Fold this sequence. Notes:
Layout: E1 9-13, H1 20-31, E2 34-37, H2 38-51, H3 59-67, E3 71-75, E4 82-86, E5 89-90, H4 92-95, H5 98-108, H6 111-122, E6 130-134, H7 137-141, E7 147-152, H8 155-168, H9 175-191, E8 204-207, H10 213-229
Parallel strand pairs: 1-6, 1-7, 2-6, 7-8
Antiparallel strand pairs: 3-4, 4-5
Helix pairs in contact: 1-10, 2-5, 3-6, 5-9, 8-9
Amino acid sequence: MNDTSNIPVLTIDGPSGVGKGTAAVRIARLRNWHYLDSGALYRALAVAARQQHVTVGDGAAIAEVASQLSIACELNEMGDGCTIFLNSEDVTAQVRTESVAAEASVIAASREARAALLLQQRAQCQWPGLVADGRDMGRMVFPQALLKIFLVADARIRAKRRYKQLKAKGFDGSLPDLVFALQQRDTRDTDRAASPLLPAGDAVVIDTSEMSIEAVVSDINRRLGNRLSN
Length: 230
């Protein structure tokens, strides 16, 4: 296995709706680094489980499905996100649905599933650097990261951001329903035994509630530049 210990890694963790994905993509573009949307890997696994009629709550069966998959995350040509490939099939549209997101959250609570995806995530660490966003990138997947960021924001503000994103994609649900779903996911992510949603001990915690995405990107990129120059 190639030594990746000297490759600079920026991790951006936090719950849904804090802006971590958008910030990660923009910084990866600015730095011309590789990008890992770890949540998309879990969602792709949820899609595969559907295709194979595997129950998402069956950790051992999900881990078996994961061991047979090839999942890739590539920055798209628009520069505003990534394209997700499951065994070379573009499943980007499928992984962005709320139903798949809910199933992915259940999968993420499984120790077996997390272990099965760990190597696939770490394999994304390549020169000249990697920006990885998710929920345990800094604590578990890339503990050696040069800079670890943990974003937080008020739950209702996060729900409104997510609602705006989904409306642009044709989502016709209600904001109260989305707030409820987000709170359920937060509880599941925070309370799970397998890698609960918590900042790494050496993470920089940033509250994005009153920040524009441009301000968030600028703040993180400045901190990263300082770390790279030291």
